[in-house]
Design goal:
The chain has a 9-stranded mixed β-sheet with strand order 5-4-1-8-9-10-11-12-13, sandwiched between helices. A 4-stranded mixed β-sheet has the order 3-2-6-7. The termini are far apart. It is globular and about 65 Å long. By secondary structure, the protein is of the alpha/beta class. It has 11 helices and 13 strands.
Amino acid sequence: MTTPSSETKTKVSVSIIGDAFADIFCYLENGLPPLGGDIRVGKPMSPVPGGSGINTATHLSSLVRQFSPYDESEEFVDIMVQTVVNENDQYGQLLIEHSKEHNFELVNCRKVKKINENETKTEEESLPSTGHCVVFVAEGERSFATHLGVIETFKASNTILHELVNCRSANPDFKNHHHHIHIAGFFNLPGFANGNLKRRLQKVREKRRSNSHGLNAYTTTISLVPQYDATEKWDGGLLDVLPLVDFLILSSLEADRISGIPVDESVSDLDRVVSLTKLADFFWEKSPQTYIILTLGSKGAVAMYEGEVIISRKAPKQYKNPVDPTGAGDAFAAGFLFGTMKWRQERNHESCGEIGSYLSGSWNAAIEEGMDFGCAAGTACVMQEGASVPASMVAIEKLMNASSDDDEENESEHVSHASSKELESEDSYDSSYDSDYESSYDSDDYSDEDGEE
């Protein structure tokens, strides 16, 4: 394989902005305990990396390293996560070490100085704990009990604007640079609601377009995963921000709560088509240029655009007894991003405009590739324990090559995962980026004042 020509190919960078949690899994064999009662749990409970932002970055990084179309994976796509953790607690350290192990940059947008034993904590230094979550897994489903912690203080204006506009990884040798921004877990980010995220994304798009001139083309796409709204309000200005979002990736349950239009995965195909048509119309009225990527569990996924269902994909394999569905949506999102960005990387600006331009229809092919990878990655995820455990290349290829009509050969089959040793790369995390962005994003040109509420 050869390295792409900088004149004809596009350098792709992905920035994931979202939540980061330490997940404490509790696998229940006989359901939840009765109120006031007790049950025995066979498997030990200990914190592991989680949260939509961390899960998506982990799966995407694995896909990049395993499926990169070129010998040097760093020439294909770079991945950065902007989130907030408390670096002074064990959960924050867990997430930082995880990012290093899986080769993506974790930018802590609320960094504070290390607390010494003899120092008095200031208000800024006394940040809440890193967010953490108890995950109950029983009968093929999962439920959560979440403490937002420092995530509750994360505001859209805390994101490092310089990185979102210029991208540290933008190779000057490439004339075309595409930056994809993925918002992971909107409803877990209170500081992004009520127009705050909208103002931030508007500023990013405006500045990137102003930087695109002459021989240098800077294009941008944005995706968003809402996640479940624990407040049950299902608002926060999400629909207002959609015109700035190119891909809204959500489950049928989330779509139901947001739109009030139920999509029952267990009904007949005809009844489901009726519901999907209504749902496509609903989102088309709210944002005509946004692609709606709807996951349907074991039924697969569909893509909707301009009030119509344009693409449908069946799940490559159906398991009657999934091991752990936690993180399957994030794995799907990672697969979708990998497929679409792989497609985008192979094209220059002239053959692929931004979504909403006269060339926007060309993205349909990208979405097909993204849904293929997404369905495979999501399916692989449900047959292993943990939300931030990427599947192996063999497992994903097997699913991508499988017929959706194949009978289940082994209900208890487990999908092998890609170990950290298998995914090791020569590049290691460089902590020097801290000083890089701290010295650059304070300039007047990149003011963080968004008029935030």
